[in-house]
Each structure stands twice: as structure tokens, then as C-alpha cells.
Specification:
The chain is α+β, with helices and mostly antiparallel strands and 227 residues long. The chain folds into two domains: 118 residues, no CATH class; 62 residues, no CATH class. The chain has four helices and ten strands, in the order αααβββββαβββββ. Helix 3 packs across helix 4. The longest helix has 19 residues. The N and C termini lie far apart (51 Å).
């Protein structure tokens, strides 16, 4: 069976008429449509990006501001293309596109991912579009409780920090990593949450007794960088 990609408007037509698995996609589409309609002050070319950024912050509790490179921009639709051959060869001519050398341009990524495809954006835009979209993104995120980098925060906006939920396998304590005791890293260049606040069990290089579980909390901090 071929995969079919539906727009949010098309998915909405399936509301209440599909399996539970598809219904979860429909519910997501309905939320995006509602969110998009509330962001009418955002120019059309940046509205989908604004929706994605707000969704990312609400779903994962954090955003990043990472300078990167991309081959295409979802906002202005520009494409980097390929390098042009400067000389003729056996199978090509001077001036032909060199498909072995894809080009890219400066971009910004806002989502935190452990694995990424090089030169492709998950939630982001080219650097030129960010300059134009920045004030709108800041406005859209002004009421969202999440760990948001300073480049996406309005001046005076409350600062929050995300903490992953944890559970101790020795004493069954449950909480978040912000409540745990800390230890120095192996390189001695910082600290990390390592110790159960209830029984003092500690994660080591060879044993993890305080494990990460589903969920997180976002708590306000007095100033950026506060623990």
C-alpha cells in the first residue's frame, strides 16, 4: 500500500470516522488548525513556522537556537541547488550541475534532536527569514511555559528550565532531576544530576540506579543560567 500524505484540513474531515491511531493524527491536525487561526497577526510566509515552533515548545518543553546549514527553507522556499562544473569531462560539460556537490546556506534550527540529517531542518528556517520572523516568533512564544533560548524570548519574559522526570530503582523515589544531588563530570568541567535525594544512591559510570522516566517539568528560574 502506498503512503498518502494528507493536509491538516483533509485530516480534519476524518474526525470521528477513523481508527484510534488515525484519530490521534486528526486531533493533532485540529490543534494545529486552531493554533494557526490564532496567529493571524503572523505573515503568511512565517505562520507555519510559528505553529511548528509553538507546538515543539509545548510538546517537548524546550527549544534551542542552533546555527546550522540547510539546502532549502520552508518559509521563503529558496533552494541552494548544486555547484556548477568549471570544466568539461567525459560525461559532463562545463556549466552542468555537479550533483555530487550539493550546496547549502546559513540556517537556524529550533528543535532539539539527538539525530539529524545533515543540511535538513526539523523546525527551522534560513538565517535571512529568521531576521524577519524573529519578532513574530517571540510574540507567539510569550505565553508558552518551556525552556526557551534568549534569542526567542521577549525582554522581561519569565525564564524556565526543563527537568526530566526520574525514578530511583533502590528506594522508589520519584521526582525530577532538579531535585537530585549533583556530581562533577569526568572532565571536571561541570556538574550533572547524579544522586537520589531520598536514599543517596548515586549513578556511576557503570551503574544507573536513578533512571529517566516519561515526562518532565518546566520550572521558573530567577535568571538565565540559574540552577
Amino acid at each position: 500500500m502506498n503512503n498518502v500524505k494528507l493536509t491538516d484540513q483533509e485530516l480534519q474531515l476524518l474526525d470521528g470516522k477513523c481508527s484510534d491511531e488515525i484519530q490521534s493524527c486528526v486531533d493533532g491536525a485540529k490543534k494545529r488548525i486552531e493554533l494557526k487561526s490564532s496567529l493571524e497577526f503572523v505573515p503568511d510566509e512565517f505562520r507555519d513556522l510559528a505553529v511548528s515552533v509553538v507546538e515543539e515548545a509545548r510538546k517537548n518543553g524546550e527549544l534551542v537556537f542552533q546555527r546550522t546549514s540547510a539546502r532549502s527553507c520552508p518559509c521563503c522556499k529558496k533552494e541552494a541547488g548544486y555547484a556548477i562544473r568549471t570544466r568539461s569531462g567525459r560525461y559532463h560539460r562545463k556549466g552542468d550541475k555537479n550533483y555530487d556537490k550539493p550546496l547549502s546556506f546559513g540556517a537556524v534550527e529550533f528543535s532539539k534532536r539527538f539525530v539529524r540529517m545533515k543540511h535538513y531542518l526539523d523546525v527551522g528556517c534560513c538565517a535571512d527569514c529568521f531576521v524577519k520572523a524573529e519578532p513574530y516568533l517571540k510574540d507567539c512564544l510569550s505565553g508558552v511555559v518551556a525552556e526557551i533560548p534568549k534569542q526567542l524570548r521577549l525582554e522581561g519574559m519569565p525564564v524556565h528550565k526543563k527537568f526530566s522526570n526520574k525514578k530511583c530503582s533502590k528506594c522508589e523515589w520519584e521526582g525530577h532531576e532538579g531535585e537530585m544531588g549533583s556530581s562533577m563530570t569526568l572532565m571536571g568541567d561541570g556538574k550533572y544530576p547524579s544522586t537520589c535525594p531520598k536514599c543517596n544512591a548515586k549513578n556511576t559510570l557503570f551503574e544507573t540506579v536513578i533512571k529517566t522516566v516519561d515526562g518532565y517539568v518546566c520550572l521558573p528560574v530567577k535568571k538565565e543560567g540559574a540552577k
